Amino acid sequence: xxxxxxxxxxxARDAADRTGIRxxxxxxxxxxxxxxxxxxxxEQDFSSIAPYTIEEAHEVADAxxxxxxxxxxxxxxxxxxxxxxxxxxxxxxxxxxxxDVVRAVSDKLIFRHPHVFGDESRDKSAQQQIKDWEAIxxxxxxxKAEKGVLDGVALGLPALTxxxxxxxxxxxxxxxxxxxxxxxxxxxxxxxxxxxxxxxTDHAHLTEEFGDLMFVMANLARHLDIDPEEALxxxxxxFTRRFGAIEAALxxxxxxxxxxxxxxxxxxxxxxxxxxxx
Length: 278
Prior knowledge:
Number of strands: 0
Structural class: mainly alpha
Largest sheet: none
Shape: globular
Distance between the termini: 53 Å
Number of helices: 13
Order of helices and strands: HHHHHHHHHHHHH
CATH superfamily of the domain at 3-111: MazG-like
CATH architecture of the domain at 3-111: Orthogonal Bundle
CATH class of the domain at 3-111: Mainly Alpha
Radius of gyration: 25 Å
CATH topology of the domain at 3-111: Helix Hairpins
């Protein structure tokens, strides 16, 4: 069926808004209709949709990393769909609707930018604006009765991102190492503890030690002004690229990785590495 000539009753009233948000909201409402909607969409709830929301955000980041600008509108649309999906479920439950979502973020942006929408001067550095932003957010947390320094750091964030946010919060009240050298010393200490635990039959303890090392690695990234999520994404991309080179080299001989051995593949890896650096 031609999308521009869709005759579903829920869409007819918004036909004039073919590219606007009202059309998307109408489509989502139709999909969630208990009587005539899509059974899969109707069965979903906040918890079941949350993983898709995270996944779509990562796909937006992936398109940007790859500079796949032709894909970005579609990926942003998929992410917007997640917002609309959550808002529709909330409206059905009588909690809030999409208008409330838009109002909340609009009010927040205005409140957090008094140098643009208020009477504060714009004549200050980006660093000062970041400090002002953090001060405003601190007042917002106080208004929510968040008393602890670490209160309000979302549990659903990717673990490395949450580690950075927790460490930044603690650093603002002075709980931080002076510099990268101190963090490197701590990494050496945590590495030794992980080595000591590797032969343990207590898997929970081994997991704990591994987590400690990753947490300190995240702290080193923070001190070096590195986004650990981005660094790991780049490392994943590099591994994928170089392993692809191994597969291509073997394929040229009519072979597959399972027909090779570690020594040969390691040599091909080094060749791919050298070719990248040439």
